[in-house]
Design a protein that fits this description.
heterodimer, A: mainly alpha, ABC transporter involved in vitamin B12 uptake, BtuC, two-stranded antiparallel ribbon, 69% helix, globular, B: mainly alpha
Chain lengths: 323, 377
């Protein structure tokens, strides 16, 4: 292994670990842009990962699994909407409830249905999303740098990895170029103005949380049917919160949020390789320090020490029409 | 004709008693549905749980031991809530509180007598917990960072920090598992069995220790602080309306910091129960979700110490009863309790007002004749 191919291996790993973060960050972006705080990305991903893992094990089809993951995640998203939009409940409390509910329920149902200590049966064959070889990977292999880069880093991922990047483009387009996107941004900044313009604040926000549910569902499905071969209890392990941090880090904009996810994913990918390695001038960096870095960076950013992250103005405030 | 139910006043006992109880019943109803879905008879399960939690001295000891943790974290969340701050960081603050206890005991337990060591340990748990809450509080007060997000992040940072410290620094030399050495028994928080033995009361040995007394003292002190002192008045005023507080000469920044530090200290006291009282060594993940349960406890107890003690007791029953239930029925695991906890946070917190319109309609039908008019007059 020369230096180049080990770098390619790191980039390859970065893409794999960033995918669920990117999908979840786009999910969170829709919800937060509409004015609904979403700390329940974690719970939605976990529930979707379980639903997908269970469905894949039962049906043997990765696509059915994706459907199940999305349906369960959207249901939780609508529950969040029901509490926050219809009943004007506290958005943080509602999100937390969903996270805790998902954390308990996935294990309870997993043990009751599969009796494997909370795990779903190991998937193989069509029950998983398998790596795709992109065209021209062989043809380009002779070219220096570009060839191996294309073959090792770009090609050879499963369809959900490429979907994640398509979702970023789609999110960008929806948020900035469509009528719905304009209204979405408006409802997160000044819902009263949107209401005055004759639009339903509730309907827009329900739409946003539903889209959030779809993307979080894909993210969860990826965890149990693509990145791993089964659902494992607590398998999200804080990734929903990292995605939320990435949304903040990206200042609630799709492309920067994606870059933040890639950065957090890169940190994750190098953390394993840096274990026990002496870096010049710095010495050995504890793995835990690198693992905590996304959280520390987010705190520093929120404190306004590196740029200023300004949230949508109406975020967290239930809309009351009669005033 | 639809009426605006939100503006109909209800008698106090309905607001503080009937609606919360209905919310809890809703949560338990859905918990029952989950049990039915996995083929467990909910009524039988309920019976097993209650017997497993309150049936004898032994189970009662465990129930009260869990209750102690929930009182601490419930009070922590409630104090912050009164200043309209949402402290999700109880988990991390409890964890760092444990670090405080460990530092004191690892350095001093062979030199100081228990009479000094126990108070110093309690103070260290509170101080370290408060310090971990101080940073998010300062960032909220002076840099405008959202306290919910920063406290979440601080939970993760605390977890990473503690893993590092336990694996690399505090680990007992020659040991494989990341735990500190056991503290010298002289400074342990006395167990309830030991504490009550001189009075001729003979208890079975359970993790229950004198931390429960500390927790109840904290309840009284928090009540006094919030409702009977000037600082508590300032805290509630700032929580109710920041502009009004400012107008009245109260510094909202000072309130944010003092409320969060107090909250962090209370969360840190979980380490008094867990580390000084039960484990007698620092170990990984000892807060085990108690910080999050505190949110459910505070919501259920409506942020009042009396309500918090009652809610903590309920959660103590759930935890201990859930453990016994998992032992009796193989298809059920302890995670069932986590799911019930989620449902309680949902129905008592996020959907707290869902049932109110229905309660108002029922009240308007059955209310004593002329009661609204009397109130109006």
């Amino acid at each position: 292994m020369d230096a180049l191919s080990s770098w390619f291996a790191i980039l390859d790993a970065t893409l794999r670990v960033s995918t669920p973060l990117i999908l979840a960050a786009m999910a969170g972006l829709f919800s937060e842009r509409s004015g609904i705080i979403d700390i329940s990305l974690e719970g939605k991903m976990l529930a979707a990962a379980f639903a997908a893992g269970a469905m894949a094990a039962v049906s043997g089809s990765a696509w059915f699994a994706l459907g199940a993951g999305i349906v369960v995640s959207v249901m939780l998203a609508l529950l969040h909407g029901f509490a926050c939009i219809t009943h004007r409940g506290n958005q943080v409390v509602s999100g937390l409830a969903i996270n805790i509910l998902a954390s308990g329920l996935t294990v309870v149902l997993g043990i009751a249905w599969f009796r494997r200590g909370g795990q779903t049966p190991t998937l193989s064959g069509d029950a998983r999303f398998r790596p795709l070889e992109l065209p021209f990977a062989d043809a380009l292999s002779g070219t220096p740098i570009v060839g191996p880069f294309y073959a090792d880093v770009v090609s050879g991922h499963n369809v959900l990895v490429y979907t994640a990047f398509a979702v970023v483009a789609l999110t960008s387009w929806i948020v900035y170029k469509t009528r719905f996107g304009l209204r979405l941004r408006a409802v997160g900044e000044n819902p009263l103005a949107v209401d005055t313009a004759g639009l339903s604040v509730s309907r827009l926000r329900y739409g946003a949380v539903a889209i959030c549910g779809v993307f979080a569902g894909i993210a969860g499905t990826y965890l149990s049917t693509a990145q791993n071969a089964s659902f494992v209890r607590e398998m999200t392990a804080g990734q929903g919160y990292i995605a939320l941090a990435a949304v903040i880090f990206g200042k609630w904009r799709p492309l920067p949020a994606m870059l933040a996810c890639l950065m957090f994913g890169f940190l994750d990918a190098v953390a394993i390789r840096l274990q026990g390695v002496e870096l010049p001038y710095i010495g050995e960096v504890p793995v835990q320090a690198i693992q905590a870095l996304p959280y520390i960076l987010t705190v520093v950013l929120l404190a306004g020490f590196i740029g200023k992250a300004i949230a949508p103005k109406a975020i967290g405030v239930p809309f009351v029409k009669e005033r | 004709m639809s009426i605006n139910t939100a503006s109909v006043p209800l008698p106090g006992w309905i607001e503080v008693l009937v609606i919360p109880v209905l919310n809890v019943l809703m949560a338990l109803f859905f918990a029952g549905l989950i049990m039915l879905a996995i083929g467990v008879d909910p009524i039988e399960a309920l019976g097993l749980m209650i017997r497993g939690a309150l049936g004898d001295d032994y189970s009662l000891g465990y129930t009260l031991y869990y209750t102690t943790n929930f009182i601490f974290t419930g009070l922590a969340v409630a104090v912050a809530f009164h200043a309209s701050l949402f402290n999700i960081g109880g988990e991390g603050q409890a964890y760092i509180g444990g670090l405080g206890v460990a530092v004191v005991f690892l350095l001093l337990d062979r030199y100081l007598p228990a009479i000094l060591l126990v108070p110093i340990g309690i103070a260290a748990a509170g101080l370290f917990g408060a310090a971990w809450a101080f940073i998010p509080a300062w960032l909220q007060a002076y840099r405008g960072s959202h306290i919910v997000i920063t406290t979440i992040m601080f939970n993760f940072i605390a977890a990473s920090l503690m893993v590092y410290l336990l694996v690399n620094v505090l680990i007992q030399p020659g040991q494989m598992s990341p735990e500190s050495r056991q503290f010298d028994p002289s400074g342990w928080m006395p167990s309830m069995k030991m504490a009550l033995a001189p009075f001729g009361i003979d208890l079975v040995n359970t993790p229950l220790n004198l931390s429960l007394v500390v927790a109840l003292i904290c309840c009284v002190l928090v009540w006094l602080y919030i409702w009977r002192t000037r600082w508590g008045y300032e805290l509630r005023t700032a929580g109710f309306s920041e502009p009004a507080a400012r107008y009245a000469g109260i510094r909202p920044r000072g309130v944010i910091i003092s409320a969060m530090c107090l909250s962090g200290a209370l969360a840190g006291f979980v380490a008094v129960n867990e580390i000084m009282g039960v484990h007698h060594r620092l170990l990984l993940n000892f807060p085990a979700g108690y910080g999050f349960t505190g949110i459910a406890v505070a919501l259920m107890g409506r942020n009042h110490p009396v309500g918090i003690v009652m809610a903590s007791l309920l959660f103590g029953v759930l935890y201990q009863g859930g453990a016994e239930l998992a032992f009796e029925i193989p298809t059920i695991t302890r995670e069932m309790v986590v799911a019930i906890q989620g449902l309680i946070i949902l129905f008592c917190g996020a959907l707290a007002l869902m049932l109110r319109p229905w309660v108002v309609r029922v009240y308007l039908v059955i209310r004593p004749v002329g009661s609204l008019e009397r109130e109006a007059a």
